[in-house]
Amino acid sequence: MNNIFADIxxxxxxxxxxxxxxxxxxxxxFTHERMPKASFLLTQLTLLVGLYLVxxxxxxxxxxxxxxxxxxxxxxxxxxxxxxxxxxxxxxxxSYSYITERKMYRGEYFVLILNAVLGMMVMISASHFLTxxxxxxxxxxxxxxxxxxxxxxxxxxxxAMKYFVLGALASGMLLYGMSMIYGxxxxxxxxxxxxxxxxxxxxxxxLILGLVFIVVGLGFKLGVVxxxxxxxxxxxxxxxxxxxxxxxxxxxxxxxxxMRLLVEGxxxxxxxxxxxxxxxxxxxxxxxxxxxxxxxxLKRMLAFSTISxxxxxxxxxxxxxxxxxxxxxxxILVYSFTSLAAFGLIIMMxxxxxxxxxxxxxxxxxxxxxxxxxxxxLVMFSMAGIPPTVGFFAKLSVIQALIDVxxxxxxxxxxxxxxxxxxxxxxxxxxxxxxxxxxxxxxEAKSGMQFVLSLNVIALILIMPWIGIIxxxxxxxxxxxx
Amino acid sequence: MxxxxxxxxxxxxxxxxxxxxxxxxNDQRAALARIVALVVSIATLLVTxxxxxxxxxxxxxxxxxxxxxxxxxxxxxxxxxxxxxxxLLIMLTAFITIIxxxxxxxxxxxxxxxxxxxxxxMEGLMIGVFSATDAILxxxxxxxxxxxxxxxxxxxxxxxxxxxxxxxxxxxxxxxLLMLVALIxxxxxxxxxxxxxxxxxxxxxxxxxxxxxxxxxxxxxxxIPMFPVHTWLPDAHVEAPAGGSVVLAAIxxxxxxxxxxxxxxxxxPDASHSLSxxxxxxxxxxxxxxxxxxxxxxxxxxxxxxxxxxxxxxVTLGLxxxxxxAVEGAIIQMISHGFISGAMFLCVGVLYxxxxxxSMDDYGGVANTMPKFxxxxxxxxxxxxxxxxxxxxxxEFLVILGxxxxxxxxxxxxxxxxxxxxxxxxxxxxxxxxxxxxxxxVKALKDINSREIFFLLILTLSVLIMGLWPAPFLETxxxxxxxxxxxxxxxxx
Lengths: 482, 493
Prior knowledge:
heterodimer, A: mainly alpha, two-stranded antiparallel ribbon, B: mainly alpha, 2 strands, globular
């Protein structure tokens, strides 16, 4: 019999975030008119305290399970939760002026964000199919609503519809796969499933079919080819502040989801899912990088770039060993912070009535605002993985993981697509530095945000001397998994 | 502290200086930017002088070691050290950067701070490439260099600059990324170490060596550039501003050859021997065929760019005959080509600043209006053709002598360059400088001013000193070349 209080203690951060989401929903009714800033500040406070709570509830030693093994807390969970909370904190700083200018500033916005964060935290710590599903749905439902938040925009509504329908389909796939696994193993608990699979034939039809459905479901949620169709639509249609959120924290949570399902649950089937991921990764790198070249809309281009980055991210996971997992974790962390900066820059350039989302809007930025031009260039070089930016080390670590398992040909394929990818990132740098500006309108900088954003971008290069510490943190996180 | 970290100082001083130049802001404070840039570049040269005076020429071992742990997870270290070859190239880099800064003094009027900052940052990165002894550190410097060069060609370049700079970037990136795969393979082979010394010691089968050699070859051959992957160079050179062309020709091309010296020869010695025939053939094609191509050019910069490819053919030829004299000749040729090609591009730059055209047809009779300039250009044209007494002669002569000992036929084919080189250089010189004044624009030309005389004079002296008294250069690299040849002679099978 577990001690319920000890269990609750492990889940303090989740409980706190949930309570605060309810509190903000209530408080906003009263402060909405008089102190509109209150909900924003309370949300940020929640995230900060959440960070502190996650940091302090680290269990002694490896993984600790609670609530009848439905909940697990290990190093990986702690690191990814910290990343999710921190990313969301920055996302809200960047979004603040965007949502105020566009009259999207409502208490619900923050409540939905906090619910999404809660969903991610639950998902990260899930050790049972039910907990995983609850976390995932809490996240997804909040995101569908957030995409539709700007209800006057036809594009946003369309994007939200697409997202909802495809997302529901993906959840259905995942659920279907889970039920098959339940049929094959007789359990929903991830540890028991792992043990059950050890004793089964690895070509058990029911098991493999269930795995295929689960991989398809994950593929949808991650947005990898051939399940990527929703990504460009959402990235282009949704408000930039929401894309900023979708493109960062949930990616980190998705890593945790994959780790829990594929790595912890289906360790015994690693050969099977690794092969599936190889195909998905190659297709994603190819489609993402090739289609990004022809885009004229920056948000859409970044959508395809995300697809290709998810392909690279899978390279570490499909090596199916701890070295590869920590490489992928490092990759996804680096990617989230780079993408945070990229969308932050779009928000920075935009103002009410002007979204700054066409690539041509950035022509000659160097003449209009050299500092922003420099920031854009840095972000693009980091996305392309050119040293000395941190993006290079992310690519280095996944390629290293591939060569470690002797997949030389895949490493060469990854490298070739990286060159193709470099082309469209360079095109942005070209637009910013070499083209003539179309207007000479000064860019009004949002001073508070500009400071944080500059720090964010500069960190992509200045983190260099300390990059070893982050890689070590990733390795430690993976090594404490159950 | 500076005693122990001299190499770091030489790398980071120009980079931080470059950021300082950037901080001077917009073009209203251009004068300040110029002065800061000049001070930083001179200070960097001063910092490299103790490297020369403190260098022990008697040993081929790496000197001025620095070693700090950087990324323990992948065993990547910040480790620096140099041998004689790297020392000369570092000093060349510091020297050429000063010339570039002075030459751009008045020419560049737009985004002055960014221009100088790009060159200073690049200087630091290039010194980093020459002094890194950790493969990933080398790679970081190597790739980071692309960024400032990309911007230099793209912002200050000629009309077709965007095509040229993107081609330059992608070409070199493709080669480098394959090298990265090879480096990671070696890392796993050598028991998780990126240290070059460990990579030298690891045993490899011939098949492995050939794959690795090919990957390195892709990266370095593109940079040199060797035939047939040379096509980016004429585009990049033609569109780059004069300073960009100088750095490209004088230093960046040397990185490819330096890569062969640091990676191919010691890491894959057996593959180097078994594939040397291919490399020699490509080098000879570069020397003869590219010289013929140069003869057909009407654009002065294109002509010098092709002549660079031909001269670099000598370097690769010298490296892959595994003969001490030829290797030394190749290294001397690298340094000498740095001075001469830099000077030639500056001469074209001087004309281009006045006339804004690079086509030889627009010139003619420049000697009448610019006599001082004509004298300088005569000297450099002769040096480019390999006239005895200039540094161009020493390198080519040593390579041909060395190659002759190995295979006289190679030497005879390579020797044709002495004729072809003289032909295209002097032909260009005649068309541009001699004859009657061809048009009013030429008539209105003003002769070079004291600033231009200053940097051309310095280069003239360098070419002469190296041509008449190459001993100090040869002494510096002597032990290092011995070490290199020993490493390249030991089989790894």
